[in-house]
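Example 3.2
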Amino acid sequence: MSSNVSFNRLPLDDDLRLRDLIVESAHNLEPELRIVGGLLPIGGSKNLDLVGVDGQSRLVLLEARCRENPAWLLEAIDHYDWARGHLEEVLQLYPQHRLDAGRQPRLIFVSAAFSEEFRRRLWYVELLPAEMVEYHYLEVNGVRGLYFEPVTAPAVLPPRQETLQAHLDNLLSSERAAVAERLIARLAALDPGVRLLTHRSGVLALWEERLLARIEFSRTAVHISDEELGGNSDLQRAADIEPVLSRLAARVTRWRRTARHAPARAATRAPTHALRTHHAPTGDLE
């Protein structure tokens, strides 16, 4: 006795609709994944796409796009950085789910397809606990839903991080290398929590896994940016470093004070108009 299986691929071009479907199909992504909120406002016009809890009570941020775009990766890193910096506030939004504040949040990208360039760039950001998942919107025997397929690292991986000195030598002229070396040495000594991570065109400075500053190199200048600058500062001479270091040192001091002493601020419950609006069941994903 044979049975016929009706199988159709369905178009999907609306990011809001995609988020709705992820809520409905979260169990297909991970059996114990629960979507608990969506479009959580984090300041300005920025929102976290979807907020979830996995089977280990770990916060999961989902970034969902029907199609990837060049700005998506940087936006997601900013969202993740905000969530790490406001973790206690996020956890207070969902007390019934007993999120584990001691575990690093996860980040999951969901899209119809990922380019080799996107996969390679995400691989460069080694510190980020991120995953990529491609979705398929299907109708099987009249039942519609999302089905997910994990995405692996690029087929040909670039070499792992070279030494910092070799990194500087490859990217900078000798004059600018001296400025960069002084800046990096001062950053490393700024605070015990500061870590430096090389990437293709420069260095990321992190404090306790939070993004402190981005340093980009060119043959003619050293550029440094952070969330309070609103743009790049060009460091041409060693004297240009001091104002930047003063600002970054003040930020680290604020972060340490907030982490140790400041009570968590009250947060507003996230709107859920991009979801199906009912709470995802407990048995059901930055």
